[in-house]
Backbone:
């Protein structure tokens, strides 16, 4: 069986997209792990949509129910943090002041449509802040496994699940590959160590252009 | 001077009628008015339309399902796509015993702000091309299409702050702000649960998160420990 | 010559409309004087649209350019005051959280239209917060002299000056009278000491109903 | 770390081009970025579209009329119906040498908030049935008619706060807030004049009025004494 990246390594690869001075919102689930791999010596401000800019690591010491991130996890604060209410928080998100949002995905289409909130086979799901983050962030990175259980490709010609937002995804990072979403469709730019580009294509519904600089991820 | 301080959460809810529309502040465990929620359960008010960011997610709102006090809920997060044991709300929703209106979180809080700020509606891109668009007007402005979203108000808002003064000024703490200051502007009667009540003038005017004009009733309670375990 | 109330006495009469627990915005000019006559022992919160709730008297001691009311005058703070930005301030005003606004007037029509921002003969005027206050306050009191220079009635069948807002005035307090604006037009409820109701009518363009309880002001 | 601290107001304005749209915070004397305004006069930038609550009213903005740097101004208060000596702006406006768009103050600040918050427009009753309505769409919502007002943004916002940290967090003082925190969200480049710059972490997270994300440049200046004398 082909062995792709672990969740931690997907998070590590996503973290390489984040640079000094950026404001970044990490969605619930896998994206949360990205906070463990932020580049050191660079100032990256993590935004939690429940009203914190500049939180640090997830920490259970001195649990305070009023000091949590958007996933409900207790967090520490970095120097220069600030608090604000939810209207101000979504003004920040919707107004394009978040440089990068990293969200989990259920499906991404070749046009960059994202479906990540509703799972028809469970008949359940909630919107939370996902639609606003998907529409508002300057750059949207989706971090997910390349296929769902049973091998069903998550990267699809068009999404079958209810959309979070149409045409919003900029970059897809999976356990198998890094794929850019552009006006001409999807471009495979990196493969996970030991993964063949043909194998990535076989696990992907739409055609993947291959970048002239296609290479193995450096982790 | 108008007396705003009530002795118990139950006193503060003395006139909440069946069928009321009620907002609840809080985001998961932060800034959730747990004592007021428990008093509302004791009161047994039925046919409630509830408005809160989440239910059954590190809050105590799920207790209102024990005796089926909720007729409808407007939320951003109520039904999980994955995870463990279903909440009572999820069970009742699965049986269609309670109605649910899911709203994107930014639209949710902006609708409440509009309700409090005399704004008749606003244009947002959020929800365009999704199920959220259903039944809504699309308005073009500056060459771009937007959804027209309408204000949200309630009969009562139950909120949580850190401190209050006797005049009704509220001070928040950490991420306990979230929806509380916004909901305080958008309900006919606003009831705040706080950890401490001080004399008027003891909260620095720079530290007031909700000005006294918005607050009708204040009740001091020991916070209920809540925590979301996923 | 008929002697009506001084500006101070108009302000005193307006102050009688204000009661315990009310949030009140006083416009620039004559309305500002109302703050000198607030009922003692009652808690009235004065709102300044530049972002103060609960200011006290106008005071030149320790002038601080950051502590002014909406007329630019230095003010003191009462216990329980708070500061907020202009978006929050006008959310308060537009959202109907100000119980009473007291504005000056150039003209008021019998339907309660208010004109108070533009003076055609000077070709000048500015809107400031007047339109929002006129539309947003739960109750709007206009305080003005009954006639303009030259004896031109300010209370008119319809306003000739550009409107601040249509159909918004609830009560008119002038140097000659107190007049209620209702669905059936204008009702004279009080006259200034020594002023004859017929004289008030002669200085007013539209017909004034006379209240069954019409009486002389108690000052 | 991105360096946001500039040595002088003139340095902070180094790239403001002719024809720029510029917001100025402040309400009369409170929270007005006087040092930045004086630096803009020294710079001599022309063809400016200015956006500020007031001009010639206890602010220093009128100095921008000395060399006719303003092409247009959007304000709530610029021309007086009464009072003393005319401002330079009033004189130039009387000769139609400068364009003026007067906006009701609540609509003015809400348009700026919309510009910063990704709101494509909003519905307000303010201005209905007045000259403010001219050229605007009337939209019905919930059985009530409203004006549709559109967002306002700028290339630069020049604002004033009490303190900043090196990261760009701002703390305000008294009624010095007014339009400053809102304008900080609605311009491509935000330049803040402050009385004190401290190390990152020295401003309590509870006291931050404008989060660092909104601020591009910070400059420490002694405040210029300003006062409106009517």
Residues:
């Amino acid at each position: 069986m082909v062995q792709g990246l672990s969740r931690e390594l997907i998070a590590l690869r996503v973290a390489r997209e984040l640079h000094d001075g950026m404001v970044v919102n990490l969605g619930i689930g896998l994206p949360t792990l990205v906070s463990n791999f932020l580049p050191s010596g660079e100032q990256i401000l993590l935004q939690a949509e429940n009203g914190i800019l500049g939180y640090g690591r997830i920490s259970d010491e001195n649990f305070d129910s009023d000091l949590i991130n958007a996933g409900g996890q207790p967090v520490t604060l970095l120097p220069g943090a600030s608090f604000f209410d939810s209207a101000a928080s979504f003004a920040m998100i919707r107004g394009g002041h978040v440089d990068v949002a990293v969200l989990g995905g259920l499906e991404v289409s070749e046009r960059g449509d994202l479906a990540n909130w509703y799972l028809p086979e469970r008949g359940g799901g909630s919107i939370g802040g996902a639609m606003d983050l998907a529409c508002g962030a300057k750059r949207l990175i989706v971090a997910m496994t390349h296929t769902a259980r049973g091998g069903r490709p998550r990267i699809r010609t068009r999404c079958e699940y209810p959309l979070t937002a149409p045409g919003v995804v900029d970059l897809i990072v999976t356990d198998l590959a890094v794929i850019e979403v552009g006006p001409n469709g999807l471009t495979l730019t990196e493969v996970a160590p030991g993964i063949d580009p043909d194998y990535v294509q076989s696990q992907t519904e739409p055609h993947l252009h291959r970048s002239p600089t296609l290479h193995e991820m450096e982790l | 001077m108008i007396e705003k301080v009530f002795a118990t959460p139950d006193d503060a809810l003395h006139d909440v009628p069946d069928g009321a529309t009620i907002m609840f502040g809080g985001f998961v465990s932060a800034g959730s008015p747990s004592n007021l929620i428990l008093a509302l359960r004791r009161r047994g008010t039925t046919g409630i339309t509830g408005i809160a960011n989440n239910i059954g997610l590190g809050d105590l709102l799920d207790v209102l399902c024990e005796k089926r006090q909720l007729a409808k809920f407007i939320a951003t997060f109520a039904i999980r796509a994955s995870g463990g044991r279903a909440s009572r709300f999820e069970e009742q929703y699965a049986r269609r015993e309670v109605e649910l209106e899911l709203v994107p979180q930014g639209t949710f809080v902006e609708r409440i702000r509009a309700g409090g700020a005399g704004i008749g509606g606003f244009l947002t891109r959020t929800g365009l091309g999704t199920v959220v668009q259903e039944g809504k007007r699309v308005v073009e402005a500056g060459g771009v299409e937007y959804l027209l979203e309408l204000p949200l108000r309630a009969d009562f808002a139950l909120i949580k702050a850190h401190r209050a003064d006797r005049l009704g000024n509220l001070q928040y703490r950490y991420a306990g702000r979230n929806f509380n200051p916004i909901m305080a502007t958008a309900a006919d009667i606003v009831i705040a649960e706080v950890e401490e009540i001080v004399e008027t003038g003891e909260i620095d005017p720079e530290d007031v998160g909700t000005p006294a004009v918005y607050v009708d009733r204040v009740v001091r309670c020991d916070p209920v420990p809540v925590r979301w375990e996923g």
